[in-house]
Design brief:
This protein is α+β, with helices and mostly antiparallel strands. It has a single domain, classed as GIY-YIG endonuclease (3-Layer(aba) Sandwich), CATH 3.40.1440.10. Helix content is 24%, strand content 32%. It has three helices and five strands. Strands 1-2-5-3-4 form a five-stranded antiparallel sheet. Strand 1 and strand 2 form a beta hairpin. The longest helix is centred in the last third of the chain and has 15 residues. The termini are far apart.
C-alpha cells in the first residue's frame, strides 16, 4: 500500500494508528480498512481542530477496528469552513458505515 491515497480528488497521508504521534494541526481523517479486492474502504470520516487532541482516544476507533479498520488517512485542512465542506462531500461520496450524519 502507498503512503498516500486519493479520496475524491483529495490527497491523504496513510498512517498506522499504533505508530503515529499526531500533530496539533486541523484536518480531515478517515478510518479505513482494505476490502477483498485490496481497495481502501472508508468506515468513518471526521474532522479535527487538532489531530493530537481528537485521534489518540477517538470514541469510534474501536468500533471501526471491529469492522476492519487498520489505518487512518489524514489530510491537513487549516480552515474550519473548508473542513466542513470537504467532510460533508466525502461522507456523501463514500457513505461510510459509521457516519450517520450528513448522509
Amino acid at each position: 500500500m502507498s503512503d498516500k491515497v486519493t479520496w475524491s480528488s483529495y490527497e491523504f497521508q496513510v498512517f498506522s494508528p499504533d505508530n503515529t504521534t499526531w500533530n496539533e494541526v486541523g484536518g480531515i481523517y478517515i478510518f479505513t480498512g482494505v476490502n477483498a479486492q485490496n481497495r481502501w474502504v472508508a468506515l468513518y470520516i471526521g474532522q479535527a481542530k487538532a489531530f493530537s487532541e481528537r485521534l489518540p482516544n477517538h470514541e469510534r476507533w474501536s468500533e471501526a477496528r471491529r469492522l476492519g479498520a487498520t489505518h487512518i488517512h489524514a489530510m491537513v485542512v487549516a480552515k474550519q469552513a473548508d473542513r466542513d465542506s470537504i467532510e460533508a462531500h466525502l461522507i456523501q461520496v463514500c457513505q461510510p458505515r459509521l457516519n450517520t450524519q450528513l448522509k
